[in-house]
């Protein structure tokens, strides 16, 4: 429970940090706005043609008597939309981070400098960082999709599928969302995806406390745009905690001996 609270605390600290650094906040909004436009087009398309896709995918229901075919296909359309939204929350973060890689790298470095006086660097050229980020994001999305398929199947279980499964879905989304955001700081420290996932699994409460409220908030696309800069800042603070990094001790006042 303590880690849940600590994770949420990092989310709030990140939002507070960017609110005190207006330039970083403003620059961090641009990638999210670009991604928002792309996603709006995709989701509108799904809303318009999602039921046609479900009808095409379920020809066996053509001969069902009314109203069962309509109810069945309507249910599948709703589940499909929910599954796409679950993946879209994670993919929104991945795409936004990819588009805004230079902006978010700079923001994360400034958080490191403010907290520890030193910002680690990966030493990789920008094209290589973009490649690593895209590759790792795809691997995370595959993992999230597998979870989504499992949750989709469990959605057919009476009562559990309508109550417990959606809650589990938000926690799963929150975990992977946290990984995507923390990767900005951890990649600069040369922490590979497998190590990042192991770190977060060792502190699941921290990851859930940070990512699950964010996953709920990200269901509102405009909110996601405004929370992204602070989410990157908060994830950087959390990454420092995961790796045991601490802020430098304040310099001793004149006349006081330095401690070692």
Can you walk through the features of this model?
This protein has nine helices and no strands. Mean pLDDT is 80; it is low at 248-255. The protein has 260 residues and is an all-alpha fold. It is elongated and about 70 Å long. The chain has helices at 2-19, 22-57, 68-99, 101-116, 126-154, 160-188, 193-202, 204-217, 221-242.
Tell me the total number of β-strands: 0
Derived structural class: mainly alpha
Q: What is the radius of gyration? A: 21 Å
Mean pLDDT: 80
What does the main sheet amount to?
Answer: none
SSE arrangement, N to C: HHHHHHHHH
Beta-strand content bin: under 5%
Shape: elongated
Distance between the termini: 34 Å
What is the topology?
Blueprint: H1 2-19, H2 22-57, H3 68-99, H4 101-116, H5 126-154, H6 160-188, H7 193-202, H8 204-217, H9 221-242
Short key terms for the protein model shown above:
single chain; 260 residues; mainly alpha; 9 helices; 79% helix; 0% strand
Summarize the structure.
This protein is mostly helical and 260 residues long.
């Amino acid at each position: 429970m303590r880690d849940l609270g600590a994770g949420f605390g990092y989310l709030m600290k990140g939002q507070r940090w960017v609110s005190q650094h207006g330039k970083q906040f403003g620059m961090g909004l641009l990638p999210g706005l670009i991604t928002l436009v792309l996603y709006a087009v995709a989701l509108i398309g799904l809303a318009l043609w999602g039921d046609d896709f479900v009808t095409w995918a379920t020809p066996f229901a053509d001969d069902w008597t009314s109203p069962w075919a309509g109810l069945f296909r309507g249910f599948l359309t709703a589940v499909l939309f929910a599954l796409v939204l679950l993946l879209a929350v994670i993919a929104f973060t991945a795409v936004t981070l990819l588009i805004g890689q230079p902006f978010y790298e700079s923001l994360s470095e400034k958080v490191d400098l403010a907290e520890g006086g030193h910002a680690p660097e990966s030493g990789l050229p920008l094209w290589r960082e973009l490649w690593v980020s895209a590759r790792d994001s795809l691997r995370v999305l595959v993992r999230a999709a597998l979870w989504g398929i499992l949750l989709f199947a469990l959605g057919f279980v009476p009562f559990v599928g309508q109550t417990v499964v959606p809650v589990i879905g938000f926690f799963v989304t929150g975990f992977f969302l946290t990984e995507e955001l923390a990767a900005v700081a951890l990649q600069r420290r040369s922490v590979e995806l497998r190590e990042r996932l192991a770190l977060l699994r060792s502190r699941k409460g921290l990851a859930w406390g940070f990512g699950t409220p964010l996953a709920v908030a990200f269901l509102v696309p405009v909110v996601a745009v405004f929370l992204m800069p602070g989410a990157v800042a908060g994830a950087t603070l959390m990454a420092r905690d995961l790796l045991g990094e601490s802020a430098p001790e304040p310099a001793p006042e004149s006349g006081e001996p330095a401690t070692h």
